## 1
Amino acid sequence: MNSREPSDDLEAELLALGDLLDVPSGPPPSDVAAAVRARLEDAHGEAPDPVRSHPPARRRRRARWKVVTAVVLVVIAITAATPQGRAAVVRILRFAGIELRVGDTRPMPVISVTPLPYEHTVDQDGLKAEVKFPVRTPKALGEPGRTTVSDRGRVVSMFWPGGVRLDQFDGGLDPVLFKKLGPPWPDYAKVGPYQAWWIPGAHPLGYLSRQDGTEIPLRQAGPTLIWQQDALNYRLEGVKTKEEAVRVAASLG
């Protein structure tokens, strides 16, 4: 009976990612190609440890993980190094009810502040009456200071001191929000078993009308973690580091 090693599932995901990724047809810049070759050679040619010895199965797992990691870095390097690659990233990051639009340069900031359509403050009774999906509160933050419902029950937003907010909305709907991004690029993360993306810098945030697709600039958003969990979309803004944002998101349960 064959047993699955921990890297099998990740390798399967990488193969699936390859079907979605539009790798640029032209060769990558010479410096990127050199870095890629060095990374792959390092992954395959790890020197034996003269002090610590590991069982063969463990050594094989470590070697396979190094190769898988190298493949991920190759994809990131080629993608980030060319305009065609950055265009592919836009398609890959359109998820969790948010459309990420990645450009070569930082976009102009939004200097005004516009609320989401029909946004209003609610109490617990109002929340239950207006929202069709289950609303969660991260245990790491405690009860929010204020909660709003907007877009006729489509979006729930919770607010805490220091500019921290959590937006949550039904994952079965078309994209609700859009973000315009430039360097620094979004960083991959995981919230438990769920894929996530960390956006480290300030960036313009906007709303997409479900009636006619009208784009409404909302404001300049802070660092944000976005992920999808149990068919719901989440957007955690205002937590300063990726590690802390992942910790808070994981406390959602």
Note: The radius of gyration is 21 Å.
## 2
Amino acid sequence: MNTIRVLLADDQALIRQALRKMLEIEDDIEIVAEAADGERALLAAGSCRPDVALVDARMPEMDGVELIARLSAGHPSVVSIVLSTFDEDDYIFGALRAGAAGYLLKDCTPDELTDAVRRAAWGETVLASAVAARLVAEIRRGVPPAPRGEAGRLSAREAEVARLIAAGATNRQIAGRLRITEGTVKNHVTSLLRKYGLRDRTRLALRLREGS
């Protein structure tokens, strides 16, 4: 039986401690590292080589969405699962676009969590029922995720980011105005570039100004 190596990334020490106790009861799961923020989690992933990263959506320094994007790019063998109290669209769709294999809520049971870790390690997608329902509803409504080039189908938050880009705002200014992290803004910009079929932010700003 292969042991599943798990990295815990959560800014609350009590949560990390509880997760460690919950998961290490299982014979086939080992906690190889803990991190209180995204930056430390990224460093730990490079040295500890986990199979699965359990990632909180909101963390200091680097949020969960940006961490997952960085893990997907730099450590593609690491499977990421968001474990969060938040079921907001920005986090759900941002994490899935960034490469997350799952999105769970912190009110899940211990059995649901350990089952999700195993299934994700085996290559499956694991979603909380509430998150799966949201995803299905958004797909049916034509809200992201959407096919490449369908620029008219933007979420409410993407539309806000697009409006501020057209006005010349920087990522930092957008983050301050919308009260989100710069990492989340970058994810929205990436999504907008994909939907408009463009390759850089400058062309995106020009296209948005033309359409405003």
Note: Residues 148 and 194 are 6 Å apart (CA to CA).
